[in-house]
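Your task:
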Amino acid sequence: MPTESQLLKCLVLCQILSNCYQPIQLIRYDETIKELFIIARGEGTIEITIFQQGQWRYGVTET
């Protein structure tokens, strides 16, 4: 189960993506490594990883 910090960060980041008209393709929680993943695709692909304590990192791939 995701932590409260992960869920709140996911909500905030999804709202930001939505405000920027970036369609969210996937939200997935990996139980083995306890990380949340978000993939959004618009002009490019945005991949976000949210760690247990709520810290996050992202990568952008241009198309």
